[in-house]
């Protein structure tokens, strides 16, 4: 042990068992421990033994009761040397005079290394990581003491290392900071070593290991900024040349322009940045006790070129308060019974190219009192400067993430169509569920429950479920782009529908009630799209195909705690967006298919780059020297090829005779 206390367990019934602690110094001549008897006590020298008896397991704690501080001048009751305690202990478990078990403890405890007095200001010298590792013994974690199983620890004496010689830490943590790499000629432990390995291996000292490259000059690679983050300026001024889609909108103070938004967990985040060209419409629950105001409305916004624009704010009073307020069953008591708060905020950003031209804000105010739950609404919409009347909300040629899909029903005179998902209300029933449009680029999943009776006819149930699912798809075509014209059929892709079930197949369950097979309870919408270009730096997405399919389930009536004649069948609808390349990928060559071990993209050995040393990109040695060596090798190879040919042997024989 190397600490002031240690714990042990005694397994078995401790009734009638006497535990004692004995100091057992080793005989210097024989190296043996003295004979121990059961007449000891629970205290030996500076050591104490504490026993917590149990029915089947007893817990023993051996602790040192002395000061471990290094001695100062003229001080007593302290450690005179850094190695403060070197003693051998035995814990004995006896039943009467019969020894049942014993535990041998070798204690080597160093004095506490707490700094007392003046501290040296000498800085720690960090080695140059380009030539040697930063830590030669990573498992050396304790200063001035031996770390168990750390064989590279300089504080471990030879006697201590013998206790754990066979259990030393391996690898980098155990001190092997320069392991042989696979390309080294002396490293022949590779499985399936190819025949040409001795010709291409590297003959180098372990001091020139490639692992040092991970720590070269201590530099840290900077991760690339995501599309939602941009580097902030340290001082106001000209920001950048414009916003890109997804960039956060900045304020005059170089802060994010924030509006409450929903997180992935469904909760509202008050300081969420507004992203350029990304609309949203969220609702957040709030109470008077937890109400907080957002950004001040006099905050100026960076237009994208360094100029700052002021928000045009219009305040209105809410009239239909019941749309936003619900009563709480257990109201919270606050100091102010009612307060004038914001019920809704509507932001309209007018943009052109990469810049923001104008911001119009409409704020609806109302009174919120104790015991009321407020459903706040925050809406952000980006409108092109060339399309400010908003009569047609699809001014961009391609789809943008978060925009509704453009659907059409080209088989009727009224060509307007829709593609929606459920937005369940209280109770989750399909009859009371609202609808929300499918948004481009956002995989979605929604559902509701349908009431089904125990005597429900299976054919009627299948038809009813199919009608419910088909009510979400009031369209025959989906626009390839967000500005697809109703008069041009080439701007649309027809939705591929797969039948939910085969009506000709007999799926009857006989006279059984409450069981129906092949119920199309899941609607699957798969949309394939690709990036076909960019307009003013904004990627333009185009839809290539849409498939509608159904997944069937077996419905069986479930009888709960109170068995009634009505059960609930959950039906779901999912939307999945699949991105594919705009152009077919380059097909693999026959060499890449048959000889994958020589593919440069998947292996370290790359035969197509065998002549890399002859190029100007190789800087390992002077180009003239590299060329000379290559020509010499080529001459030797050519000479061997010529001399080994049959015709050369005939010419040689004729010349001799």
Task: Write up this protein.
This protein is mainly beta and 657 residues long. It folds into 5 domains: 5-68 and 83-109, Immunoglobulin-like; 134-214, no CATH class; 247-384, no CATH class; 409-502 and 512-580, no CATH class; 596-656, no CATH class. It contains 6 helices and 28 strands. It has helices at residues 158-161, 197-200, 458-470, 590-594, 623-643, 646-656, and strands at residues 5-11, 18-23, 43-44, 47-52, 57-64, 83-95, 98-110, 261-262, 268-269, 280-286, 301-302, 308-309, 312-317, 325-327, 338-352, 355-369, 372-384, 407-408, 418-423, 434-437, 444-453, 473-474, 477-479, 492-494, 496-497, 515-535, 538-556, 566-579. Strands 10, 13, 14, 15, 16 and 17 form a 6-stranded mixed β-sheet that branches. The protein has a 5-stranded mixed β-sheet with strand order 21-28-26-27-25, with helices on one face. A 4-stranded antiparallel β-sheet has the order 1-5-4-3, with no helix packed on it. Strand 15 and strand 16 (355-369) form a beta hairpin. Belongs to the tectonic family. Residues 112-221 form the Tectonic-1-3 N-terminal domain. One of its GO terms (biological process) is smoothened signaling pathway.
């Amino acid at each position: 042990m190397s600490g002031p206390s240690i714990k042990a367990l005694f397994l078995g019934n401790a009734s009638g068992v006497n535990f004692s602690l004995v100091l057992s110094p080793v005989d210097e001549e024989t190296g043996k421990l003295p004979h121990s008897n059961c007449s000891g006590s629970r205290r030996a020298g500076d050591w104490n033994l504490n026993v917590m008896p149990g029915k089947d397991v007893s817990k023993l704690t051996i602790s040192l009761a002395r000061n471990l501080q290094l001695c100062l001048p003229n001080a007593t009751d302290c450690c005179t040397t850094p190695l403060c305690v070197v003693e051998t202990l035995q814990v004995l478990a006896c039943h009467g005079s019969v020894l049942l078990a014993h535990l041998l403890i070798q204690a080597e405890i160093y004095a506490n290394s707490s700094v007392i007095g003046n501290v040296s200001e000498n800085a720690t010298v960090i080695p140059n990581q380009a030539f040697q590792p930063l830590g030669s013994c990573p498992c050396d974690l304790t200063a001035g003491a031996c770390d168990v199983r750390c064989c590279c620890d300089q504080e471990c004496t030879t006697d201590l290392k013998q206790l754990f010689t066979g259990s030393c830490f391996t690898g980098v943590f155990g001190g092997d900071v320069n392991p042989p790499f696979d390309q080294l000629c002396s490293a022949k432990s590779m499985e399936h070593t190819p025949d040409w390995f001795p010709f291409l291996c590297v003959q180098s000292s372990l001091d020139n290991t490639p692992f040092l490259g991970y720590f070269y000059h201590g530099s840290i690679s900077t991760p690339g900024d995501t599309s939602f983050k941009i580097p902030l300026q340290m001082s106001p001024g000209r920001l950048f040349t414009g916003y890109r889609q997804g960039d956060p909108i900045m304020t005059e103070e170089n802060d994010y322009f924030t509006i409450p938004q929903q997180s992935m967990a469904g909760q509202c985040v008050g300081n969420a940045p507004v992203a350029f060209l990304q609309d949203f419409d969220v609702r957040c629950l709030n109470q008077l006790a937890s109400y907080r105001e957002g950004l001040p409305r006099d905050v100026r916004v960076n237009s994208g070129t360094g100029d700052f624009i002021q928000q045009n704010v219009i305040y209105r009073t809410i009239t239909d308060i019941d749309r936003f307020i619900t009563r709480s069953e257990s109201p919270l008591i606050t100091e102010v019974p009612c307060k004038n708060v914001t019920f809704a905020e509507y932001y309209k950003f007018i943009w052109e190219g990469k810049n923001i031209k104008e911001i119009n804000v409409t704020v609806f105010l109302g009174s919120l009192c104790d015991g009321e739950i407020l459903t706040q609404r925050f809406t952000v919409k980006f409108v092109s400067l060339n399309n400010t009347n908003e009569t047609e909300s699809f001014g961009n040629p391609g789809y943008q993430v978060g925009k509704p899909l453009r659907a059409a029903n080209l088989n009727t005179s009224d060509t307007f169509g829709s593609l929606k998902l459920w937005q369940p209300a209280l109770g989750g029933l399909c009859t009371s569920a609202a609808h929300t449009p499918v948004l481009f680029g956002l995989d979605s999943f929604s559902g509701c429950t349908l009431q089904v009776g125990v005597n429900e006819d299976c054919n009627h149930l299948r038809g009813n479920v199919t009608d419910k699912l088909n009510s979400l798809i009031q369209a025959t075509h989906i626009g390839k782009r967000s500005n697809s014209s109703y008069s041009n059929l080439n701007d649309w892709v027809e939705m591929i529908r797969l039948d939910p079930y085969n009506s000709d197949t007999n799926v009857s369950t006989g006279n059984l009630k409450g069981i129906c097979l092949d119920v199309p309870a899941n609607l699957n919408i798969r949309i394939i799209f690709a990036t076909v270009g960019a307009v003013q730096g904004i990627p333009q997405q185009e839809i290539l195909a849409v498939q509608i399919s159904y997944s069937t389930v077996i419905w069986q009536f479930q009888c709960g705690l109170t068995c009634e004649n009505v059960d609930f069948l959950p039906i779901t609808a999912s939307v999945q967006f699949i991105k594919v390349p705009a152009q077919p990928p380059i097909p693999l060559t026959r060499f890449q298919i048959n000889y994958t071990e020589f593919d440069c993209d998947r292996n370290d050995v790359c035969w197509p780059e065998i002549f890399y040393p002859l190029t100007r990109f190789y800087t390992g040695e002077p180009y003239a020297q590299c060329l000379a060596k290559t020509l010499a090798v080529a001459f030797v190879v050519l000479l061997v090829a010529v001399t080994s040919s049959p015709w050369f042997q005939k010419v040689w024989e004729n010349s001799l005779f």
